């Protein structure tokens, strides 16, 4: 078997969401694991520090905050350093009986509590951080000027940057959320079948190529194709709007617990998706607003195309009364032609459901089917425009396996005439049955109103719900 891959912007965005979700999830899990093994801040003099280790514990006091004016930190200031948009103040704190280390404090609450030590009313402060390499060399002479301070007791090869361990859980939650959104987008678009399609070695999928041999007006076909494209886009927009609701809630959560900028980005993207879903919906208020403000709306475009199709269909029907319809029984030599007719007729079903038994048959499979069932090719002035396939299950009981007309000739009454012809070719029929997707209203209406079938039980054919039809004599 051969396969071809079709990747759109939607699949690319889904892939990006999935990759970011995986990275955030594993980063959060890794950080949370490090936090569970955090070293005690007050016993660091007994430990061999290394970069990336988490540290936690109580701070009782600090030795010094400021550095002399001649010790500039990359031009930012003498007592603080800006890192990734955050300003960190430097404090030198004791981490044992004789050892000291520099910490970088970022949160306002931690700074206020540390400064309270200077006023003599400070209490123990809980600190959580991660060991990193210092950004600049420490000014040893400054420490020498402090009475009772011995520079050899300062751990100068590392500093500890303030980190909130609880945020690791938030990162995990965000990663899980992005993974869930990516998976839902992937499944709702048809999964692997949406962009990895299987091709047979004998026949590659033919998309409406059979229509090229017709010598007729293509306006109706063009309207039908455009309508189907708009309906698929509207379905995608609605689905994305639904997915944006949990993303909006997640945005507020991210603002509160993680990052203002990241949260605002989520909210803006979510509101944009929800607004797009609303303005393109069939809601009366949305349609009125779109018309009043001259906004683009898929629902309005779909309505216009449906009206155009009705007008064109009426024109085609009036012209169709002069059509010269005939039928020819198919043999094995017609296998390739029938494959092409089937592919043209059922391509939309294949795209819609991700599968269709009548689509993508090989020539060999069609030859076997011709042997097992009776097939007729529908002709208009000797041009093939459709096919009928009927199988006699037992004497007088027939199963209608296929009744199809290619898109340019649909809506002209050819299907109704073909069904009546099939009945005339099976004069001994007692019961005729068939199966069609339950959500295809056009098929249901055709078989019940035009052909006289009754609706039977519904069942699942893989992932597609189908309905049985029967007609008794």
Structure description:
The protein is α+β, with helices and mostly antiparallel strands. The protein contains 13 helices and 16 strands. The strands form three sheets. A seven-stranded mixed beta sheet has the order 2-3-7-8-6-5-4. A seven-stranded mixed beta sheet has the order 10-11-12-13-14-16-15, sandwiched between helices. A hairpin with a 2-residue loop joins strand 4 and strand 5 (86-94). Helix 6 (219-257) runs antiparallel to helix 7 and helix 10 packs across helix 11 (363-372). The longest helix is centred in the middle third of the chain and has 39 residues, at 219-257. The protein is elongated and about 115 Å long. The two termini are 45 Å apart. Residues 67-80 and 199-217 have low confidence and may be disordered.
Keyword list:
473 residues, alpha+beta, seven-stranded mixed β-sheet, 23% strand
Fraction of helical residues: 40-55%
H-E order: EHEEEEEHEHEHHEHHHHEHHEEEHEHEE
* Mean residue pLDDT: 79
Structural shape: elongated
DSSP strand count? 16
Instruction: Determine the structural class based on helices, strands and strand pairing.
Output: alpha+beta
> Helix tally?
13
The major pleated sheet works out as: 7 strands, mixed
Low-confidence stretches: 67-80, 199-217
What's the SSE blueprint?
Layout: E1 2-5, H1 9-36, E2 39-40, E3 54-59, E4 80-83, E5 86-94, E6 100-105, H2 108-118, E7 125-132, H3 140-144, E8 154-162, H4 167-188, H5 192-195, E9 196-199, H6 219-257, H7 260-279, H8 284-292, H9 298-320, E10 325-329, H10 335-353, H11 363-372, E11 374-380, E12 383-394, E13 397-405, H12 414-425, E14 431-437, H13 441-450, E15 454-461, E16 464-472
Parallel strand pairs: 2-3, 6-8, 13-14
Antiparallel strand pairs: 1-9, 3-7, 4-5, 5-6, 7-8, 10-11, 11-12, 12-13, 14-16, 15-16
């Amino acid at each position: 078997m051969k396969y071809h891959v079709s990747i759109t912007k939607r699949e690319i965005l889904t892939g990006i969401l999935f990759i970011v979700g995986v990275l955030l999830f594993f980063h959060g899990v890794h950080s949370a694991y490090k936090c569970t093994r955090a070293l005690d801040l007050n016993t660091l003099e007994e430990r061999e520090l290394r970069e990336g280790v988490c540290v936690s514990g109580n701070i009782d006091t600090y030795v010094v905050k400021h550095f002399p004016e001649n010790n500039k930190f990359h031009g930012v200031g003498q007592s603080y350093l800006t890192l990734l948009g955050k300003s960190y103040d430097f404090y030198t704190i004791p981490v044992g009986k004789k050892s000291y280390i520099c910490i970088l404090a970022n949160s306002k609450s931690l700074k206020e509590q540390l400064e309270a030590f200077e006023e003599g009313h400070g209490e123990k402060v809980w600190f959580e951080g991660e060991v990193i390499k210092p950004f600049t060399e420490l000014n040893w002479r400054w420490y020498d000027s402090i009475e009772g301070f011995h520079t050899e007791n300062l751990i100068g090869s590392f500093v500890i940057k303030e980190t909130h361990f609880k945020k690791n859980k938030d990162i995990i939650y965000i990663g899980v959320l992005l993974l869930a959104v990516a998976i839902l987008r992937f499944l709702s678009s048809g999964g692997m079948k949406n962009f990895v399609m299987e091709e047979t070695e004998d026949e590659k999928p033919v998309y409406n190529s059979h229509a090229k041999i017709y010598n007729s007006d293509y306006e109706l076909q063009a309207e039908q194709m455009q309508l189907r494209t708009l309906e698929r886009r509207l379905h995608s927009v609605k689905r994305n709007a639904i997915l944006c609701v949990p993303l909006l809630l997640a945005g507020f959560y991210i603002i509160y617990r993680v990052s203002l900028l990241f949260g605002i980005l989520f909210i803006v993207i979510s509101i944009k998706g929800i607004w797009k879903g609303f303005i393109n919906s069939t809601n009366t208020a949305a349609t009125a607003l779109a018309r009043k403000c001259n906004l683009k709306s898929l629902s309005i475009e779909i309505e216009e195309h449906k009206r155009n199709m009705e007008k064109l269909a009426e024109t085609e029907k009036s012209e169709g009364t002069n059509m010269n319809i005939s039928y020819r029984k198919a043999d094995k030599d017609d296998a390739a032609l029938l494959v092409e007719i089937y592919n043209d007729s059922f391509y939309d079903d294949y795209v819609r459901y991700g599968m269709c038994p009548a689509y993508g048959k090989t020539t060999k499979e069609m030859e076997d089917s011709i042997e097992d069932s009776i097939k007729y090719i529908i002709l208009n002035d000797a041009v093939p425009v459709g096919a009928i396939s009927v199988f006699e299950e037992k004497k007088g009981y027939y199963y209608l396996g296929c009744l199809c007309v290619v898109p340019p000739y649909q809506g002209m009454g050819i299907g109704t005439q073909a069904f009546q012809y099939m009945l005339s070719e099976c004069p001994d029929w007692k019961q005729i049955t068939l199966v069609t997707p339950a959500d295809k209203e056009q098929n249901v209406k055709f078989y019940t109103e035009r052909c006289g079938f009754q609706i039977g039980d519904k069942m699942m054919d893989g992932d597609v719900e189908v309905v049985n039809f029967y007609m008794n004599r």
